[in-house]
Design goal:
Low-confidence stretches: none
Number of domains: 1
Radius of gyration: 14 Å
Mean pLDDT: 90
Distance between the termini: 13 Å
Order of helices and strands: EHHEHEHEEH
Shape: globular
CATH architecture: 3-Layer(aba) Sandwich
CATH topology: Rossmann fold
Strand content: 15-25%
Number of strands: 5
Structural class: alpha/beta
CATH superfamily: Dehydroquinase, class II
Strand order of the largest sheet: 2-1-3-4-5
Largest sheet: 5 strands, parallel
């Protein structure tokens, strides 16, 4: 099974940015833990601060991978283009947010990508990525 984790803008700063919201662990450190927990899954990780690069990556793997875990960061609330890219591919996409977007500023309460995702996991910290893996590895996502 092949799963790609995609993180969007500013998530390269996990562990140093707004620790009260995002915690103090880097994503690279968490990703090592995640991949060790699921040795039978071929995980890949991609991060970009650029909207077009995220879209290109969705197009690149969206017809050959078994699932995608996407934290689009602030693009969640602004990008029709990312939403359209998700709609155009075959791989199920699980939307993940580290913080609870509904407990934050009002502009974060709306996700433009959710309608084209298999589901959304929000507010469980980095554990949300593991919850997405669980979904993608069960018959629920088929």
């Amino acid at each position: 099974m092949k799963i790609l984790v995609i993180n969007g803008p500013n998530l390269n700063l996990l562990g140093t940015r707004e620790k009260s919201v995002y915690g103090d662990q880097t994503f690279e450190s968490y990703f090592k833990t995640l991949t060790a927990k699921y040795p039978n899954i071929n995980f890949e990780y991609y991060q970009s601060n650029v909207e077009g690069e995220l879209i290109n990556k969705l197009h690149e793997v969206g017809f050959s991978y078994d699932g995608i875990i996407l934290n689009a960061g602030a693009y969640t609330h602004t990008s029709v283009a990312i939403s359209d890219a998700i709609a155009a591919i075959n791989a199920p996409v699980v939307e993940v947010h580290i913080s609870n977007i509904h407990a934050r500023e009002e502009f974060r309460h709306t996700s433009l990508i959710t309608a084209n995702c298999a589901g959304m996991i929000t507010g469980f910290g980095l554990k949300g990525y593991e919850m997405a893996v669980f979904y993608l590895t069960t018959n629920e996502s088929k």
